[in-house]
Amino acid sequence: MEIQLNAVPHADRPLLEILHLKKHYPVTRGLLKRTVGYVKAVDDVSLTIYPGQTLGLVGESGSGKTTLAHSVMRGITPTAGSVIFHDDHLGPVDVASADPAALRHVRRNMQMVFQDPFSSLNPRMTVLDIIAEPLQVNQIAKGKAAQERVAELLQLVGLRPEYMRRFPHAFSGGQRQRIVVARALALNPRLVLLDEPTSALDVSIQAQTLNLLKDLQSRLNLSYLFISHDLGVVEHVSDTVAVMYVGRVVEVAPTRKLYQQPKHPYTEALLSSIPKPDPTRKKRRIAIAGEIPNPANPPPGCHFHPRCPYAQPICAHEAPPLREVTPGQFAACHFSDELNLKGVNDF
Amino acid sequence: MTNMLLQIKDLRTHFFTESGVVRAVDGVSFDIAPGKTLGVVGESGCGKSVTGYSILQLINPPGRIVGGQILFEREKNGRKEVVDLLKYGARSEDIRQIRGNEIAMIFQEPMTSLDPLFTVGDQLAEAILVHQKVSKRSALDRATELLDKVRLPQARELLNKYPHQLSGGMRQRVMIAMALSGQPKLLIADEPTTALDVTTEGQILDLMQSLQEEFGMAMLFITHDLGVIAEMAEEVVVMYLGRVVEKTDVRTLFDAPKHPYTRALLESIPKVGHKHDGPLQTIEGMVPSPFNIPQGCPFHPRCARFMPGICDEAVPAETPLERSHTVRCYLYSEQAEGDRYGNPA
Predict the structure, then answer these.
(1) Do A60 and B44 touch (CB under 8 A)?
(2) Is A204 at the interface with chain B, CB within 8 A?
(3) Chain A contacts of B254, Cβ < 8 Å?
(4) Is the pLDDT of residue B290 over 90?
């Protein structure tokens, strides 16, 4: 089964293709560590990221968003599937099975930014050391040249180069996140994986950071995989949005379509749950019962069926495949064609 | 005094640290009517949580409540009386009677508010036994009822479970059940859904609203999330650096905010369902260090409407606009606040 995700029409070829990616963790029991089951943290996920575009990834905790991002970088080795990075020099490289030399090369082009800027910066290193480290590790620049590059990067993210000899504690949360972004950009990557980059920041700082990220994207033609649980933020930054539920992608579509005409009941439930900053809106939340199932023991069939208000007998034993419901919009639901689901503004 | 459940007047809670005095709450006043919800919104460090903790005198050294009044309407022997909670000592029997009984509080992270070594039943029963003269057995019955009230299925079995066996949403429901055990008149909720996933958050907000109706309690809802404020609150206070900068009903807050900080805050959030490609409005700079609060209006270094020579001189007074709307900003009144920290009147 080959899935073509032409979510947005492109002249370009994709930058990154995630194909049938799986990450299963064995659950062992007893003295002999017999494997009694698997936690399917990422279960057959296929997604495509285009140059200069942002793929937003939403889902609740335990849905596999972060595992997916780490598997893309091969920080975690995937169980199965491939991650094809279209490199300018090497051509398509499967990150999941690349040899060390190719992997090192490709990883320069993929960088990560994490949620908490307080724990992702070494408190005993100066900003100069922090941002210059990737340059030194990859033998791109050292000494004076590295210092110049760091100054340039600091300016790029809106910090004053004079601050480069300071330690991270001297900076606020928003400034630290800028330092993290500067470090990620040191090697001129094509793709940046942003894992909840603004969740730890205050609203006013969040807006500055989001503007910075969008600005850098258009200046440097960066692609983003933007992971967040905040549906408002994801809508603002993304060209395409994928929704994950217990390890699987349940819907992927161009942002407007996904928010205005969702085709999966879980997407609809998420959209109805967001507290909206508008007191005049009627509070008509779709009551979805229960909580996210344990990924070690998910319900059979469609994982969402026990909570789904539209569930039918078939949902309990047959997992629906991800299929194209409207042009560019993919959903994994048996009844996507029949259901008339509400968009974010209909609640 | 027209029938207010809680009136906070000029509350000041300061922290006397080695590096200086932090005026975490500095002259905060607001009222809560019985059965109503007041939302307190602001960024980290604005003093919203400290305000909540101050009401129950849960301030630890080096923090101290240095001034103000917290007037609370109590029913004692069938008669209503208004007491100043700050007249009671933080360890007095009187405040302990009120804490967790007449005024209850729930917190952001339910895992840290529950003891991992005791079962849910033990902890709920304890809360009941502290305030009510009943047997352990009937306390456990009452606990089961409360768990039913917060819509936790299989309440009986749940009594024997430990907190780690519950999900985040279930733990927060247990905390709410515990808070309801004394049938409080006021529930202080400090970011109760911030740590929860969005579908769970929705469930908890719905639950809190229906329980509020059922129990007729008032709520002080502390959050940084303007979406949550829009859903939950009737009246709202916006705080910045220890002061209330604007106070109004929730409709007016979103339709016609007056203070430049409130406006900027509202514009800086991406509005879901209204995607646009332009940049978001931002607030320049960042919240200043609490040790070094700017003179005059504390927002002036970041304010788009900054008027040199006015805003950086003295703290603006709280100016009443129409109805219950007040704002602290020189755009609406020239009046400054004469306060005892050296700012000219």
Answers:
(1) no
(2) yes
(3) 277-280
(4) no
